[in-house]
Design a protein that fits this description.
Elements (H helix, E strand, L loop, with lengths): L10 H5 L14 H13 L7 H6 L14 H18 L2
Helix pairs in contact: 2-4
Length: 89
């Protein structure tokens, strides 16, 4: 099922991610991947299976996250989450 969430708040972040047309995670919503990564980074989760995370995401949608790398989105989200956690202390 295609993602129907409003990810307009992430359009700048999505526009800077690399394109990805193949492999695990193909056609997965990169904005959802970013948000999952952010949550994991903020809570400092260390052990995860990225393929499991990506398989659990909805299909991609149009706009700035179309054909963007969900792997890169998750990694950036994780980094941003860790930084947000560190800066909140």
């Amino acid at each position: 099922m295609a993602c129907k969430k409003d990810h307009s708040d992430l359009s700048d972040i999505m526009s800077n991610l690399p394109y990805d047309q193949g492999g695990v995670g193909r056609h997965k919503c990169a904005a959802c991947a970013y948000k999952k990564g952010f949550d994991a980074g903020y809570s400092l989760k260390e052990e995860l299976d990225i393929n499991e995370v990506l398989n659990g995401l909805e299909e991609s949608q149009a706009a700035s996250q179309r054909h963007k790398s969900p792997h890169a989105a998750y990694a950036l989200g994780y980094y941003d989450g860790v930084c947000a956690k560190t800066n909140s202390k």
